[in-house]
Structure formats: structure tokens, C-alpha cells
Specification:
- About 45% of the residues are buried.
- With about 280 residues, the protein is of the alpha/beta class.
- It is globular.
- A six-stranded mixed β-sheet has the order 5-4-3-2-1-16. Strands 8-9-10-11-14-15 form a six-stranded mixed β-sheet, covered by helices on one side.
- Strand 14 and strand 15 form a beta hairpin.
- Helices cover about 25% and strands about 30% of the residues.
């Protein structure tokens, strides 16, 4: 199988789409000049705004979003596959969606995935998050075709739900994207170990572009974008939370090797649930 050159873009996205595009574009261009065929950006690529009223004031449909449309045009110009890890967009019903968008080198949006699992938590640090108060969750898992392998889509908090990743792998995905805007407390404790677990369980390459640092809206995210191989090995990692590019060349034959060595994806057995 032909190797594929990938690049993850680490961002510190501001609160408006035009400024977000201005930050992301030069890094994507840098990745393309270095030979990346597949480029991925993190969750909330087009804007991050934790004030709900201000966020809804800024939101618009993907087709009207300056950052989304700028990135679509950029993929076409550079002739790359570009995963907009997620864009926060306005739905036709007036609600918000946290949506991953795959753009082809022809500038077509060929796949979309709305984040299924909502980050509704009260952290020991006192941080409180209620994504369900702002976003409508998705209802369908998505696997799509790339020239090199199938790609399974997920977003951030999804990574805590192993059954989603098993379903993506069993549907043929050998690459799984996990764009994220992880909090610093959970990032320090769980980011690497969860991503490596998802890769090992599925025998897949897991690609996790991240937001990092202290943002314009006051949030702080973990960074440390990460690529994990099908055996759980770290293929590449940024050791900081600054905007940047993480590049790697992936040998997708490693997916077949890992799944042949431990064929857990075909060993499902029906069982009854435990009694209460």
C-alpha cells in the first residue's frame, strides 16, 4: 500500500471566523509545501467562544462561514485532502452543530460528521462544561473513503466511548481522526493514554490535531497534537501547546499487520448484561 504523508495543524483559534482563517491558512500552506497529502485541523477551527450568546451571534451556516469557505478554497488551490476537524456552525433549525468536514482536492465537501457525545462535566478543578446547552448532538457514525484507506470521523470527547471507534474500525476505517480542544486538566491526565488505547483496540492510525494554549475567550487547551500507530506506538507528537504543524509519513500496511496479529475486531460475542 502506498504511504501517505499527513500533517496535523495545531491552533489557538480566536473568536471570529476571519481571524481564525488568518491563523490556520499559513500553517496549512506550510504543511502542503512540505508534501502533506492529507491535512487535518482541530476541533473549533473556525471559532472558539465560550460565551454562549456571543457564540450564537457569530455562528452561521457552513456555506456562509468565512473560515470554512476559505479552507475549502485553500484545499482546492493546494490540491490536498483537508479535514476541517470541526467547524461550529448554525443548523437550519437555529441550533448549533459541532461538525467535522472532509474537503477533497477539488474543493468539494465529501463527508460531514456531527459530534455525537456532548462534554457535560464538572471537573475537580471547578471547571463546568455543558456542551448540550449549545449544540445538537449527531446521531450517526461516519466512515468515508480516501485514496489510501477509509477514514473514520470523531471529535474530542467522543474518544472516551470505545464502542464508537470499534464501529468505525469494523466498518473498514484504518485512519481515525480525533480533532480536539481538550481542557488542560483532562489533557494532562488522559489525552495520550486514551488515544493510544483507541489505536490499540482498533488496530488503526489515530490522528489527533489539537487546540493549544490560552485563547481569546479565556479558555485554556492542552495542545500536544498526536499521531498514534496501529500497535499503539507514538508516530509523532508536539511537546507544546503553541500553534504549529506535526508531519508524518504513514505506512498503511501497518493496519493490516496489527489487525492480523490480534484480530480482536472479528472476535465479538453476544452476551447478556450484568444484573444490577
Amino acid at each position: 500500500m502506498t504511504p501517505v504523508s499527513v500533517a496535523l495543524i495545531q491552533l489557538r483559534t480566536p473568536t471570529r471566523q476571519v481571524a481564525a482563517l488568518a491563523q490556520a491558512e499559513p500553517l496549512i500552506r506550510q504543511a502542503a509545501v512540505s508534501g502533506a497529502q492529507l491535512v487535518m485541523t482541530p476541533e473549533g477551527t473556525n471559532l472558539l467562544q465560550k460565551n454562549r450568546a456571543a457564540m450564537f451571534e457569530a455562528l452561521c451556516p457552513a456555506e456562509d462561514d468565512a473560515c470554512v469557505q476559505g479552507l475549502v478554497a485553500l484545499a482546492n488551490e493546494l490540491k490536498i485532502w483537508l479535514l476541517i476537524g470541526s467547524a461550529l456552525v448554525l443548523r437550519p433549525d437555529g441550533q448549533a452543530a459541532n461538525r467535522s468536514l472532509l474537503v477533497s482536492p477539488q474543493g468539494d465537501i465529501v463527508a460531514a460528521y456531527d459530534k455525537i457525545h456532548m462534554f457535560d462535566v464538572d471537573l475537580p478543578t471547578g471547571e463546568r462544561h455543558r456542551e448540550s446547552s449549545a449544540y445538537t448532538p449527531g446521531e450517526a457514525a461516519v466512515v468515508t473513503d480516501l485514496p489510501w484507506h477509509k477514514l473514520g470521523l470523531s471529535i474530542c470527547y467522543d474518544m472516551r466511548f470505545a464502542y464508537l471507534y470499534r464501529a468505525l474500525a469494523q466498518a473498514g476505517a484504518g485512519l481515525i481522526s480525533v480533532p480536539a480542544a481538550f481542557t488542560r486538566p483532562t489533557g494532562a491526565a488522559h489525552w495520550e493514554v486514551l488515544l493510544r488505547a483507541r489505536a490499540i483496540e482498533t488496530g488503526s492510525f489515530v490522528l489527533a490535531p489539537a487546540q493549544g494554549g490560552t485563547h481569546e475567550d479565556g479558555r485554556a487547551t492542552w495542545g500536544h497534537s498526536l499521531i498514534v500507530g496501529p500497535w499503539g506506538e507514538i508516530v509523532g507528537q508536539l511537546d507544546h501547546d503553541e500553534p504549529g504543524v506535526l508531519s508524518a509519513v504513514l505506512d498503511l500496511d501497518e493496519v493490516t499487520k496489527a489487525r492480523s496479529a490480534i484480530p480482536a475486531l472479528i472476535h465479538d460475542r453476544a452476551f447478556s448484561g450484568p444484573s444490577a
